[in-house]
Amino acid sequence: MRRIGVEERRARIGRRHRLAASAHAADAVEAAAAMVALHATDPATVHLSIAARVPGSDVAATERALYDDRALIRLLGMRRTVFVVPTGFAPIVQAACADDIATKQRRLLVKHLTEAGVAADAESCGVWLRAVEESTATALALRGSATAQELSADEPRLRTRLSMADGKPYAAAPYVTSRVLFQLAVDGRIVRGRPVGTWLSSQHQWSPAEAWLAGGLGAKPTAEEARVTLARSWLTAFGPGTATDLQWWAGWTAGQTKKALIAVEAVAVDLDGQVGYVLPGDEEPEVPVEPWVAFLPSLDPTPMGWKERDWYVGAHKSKLFDSTGNIGSTVWADGRIIGAWGQPESGAVRYQLLTDVGRETEALIEAEAARWTAWLAGVRVTPRFRSPLEKQISAQKS
């Protein structure tokens, strides 16, 4: 079993994740494809992740790819998370991950509807849900695109309240609107279009999938075929990684993960005592790239590509992740995290290093901070998931 050590794993990141200058992507679609998928729970992440990998990229170029050319698309996928993927890859994510999520979420929503007394029993609640879904889909088709608020005006049953955690201090009675739209989205029937407001807005117009794309998301492979394709894409971008890494990243079961690794004929390698996997023919050392640094946003796909992160995070996890395991904004050098960045009130990009990197690397970091300050042009991005170190940096006086 060939050994692939930490230094070699780090060396792969610069080229494969398009972060070294000699490996930058040509456009937003190429950047997204290189990473398999871009996290989109925080709308700013998509734009910043692309700008970190595409020289000269700006918000307008990413918006064109998303909303005009529609070469990129937002959808629910791995781990019930919103991602942006190349449009042609959407059927793979749908079949490999979203369809299973849709089944589980429908069952859960029917349970919550039953507990709220929306209908006499679970079967009746299931019928009620289907009726509301169809009515909502029809209203959306008639409008062409609409916000959640507009759809709830067309279909009053979307204002039905659930009863969550009844009797607990955190009890809530939310409208069913977001849950129904989530279900339609994870079923692949509707898609998120343009944001309502600026590129930092998390509210989007909804459109029928068939109206957004000719033929909707397109023909799907079988779930097993799609998992094989997704595993191969993940290994291309993130290999070597462990079975645990892939299982976590994809949100699969252990059995699904094992079958996918067998199907791609993954080659076992030694990751300093752990068994990792690469694609056949990918066992050889990576061709070195020049020294590089990168400022990556919260939830960027690079740090979120593996479950086991010590080899690139080091001893600084408590400063870089929030309490639920979401990574904040980070500063990278040659395949490892060396600090974090944030924006005080002035909007200028500031950083704090967690390790000594030497004068040459620090000069690269200074230049990158200045580039990001110019790119953001006074727009202050507050991550949805904030790490302790990012909060500390952003609270500083400018």
TrEMBL record:
GO terms for molecular function: DNA binding. Keywords: DNA-binding. It holds the Pfam family AlkZ-like. It comes from the Bacteria. This is Winged helix DNA-binding domain-containing protein.
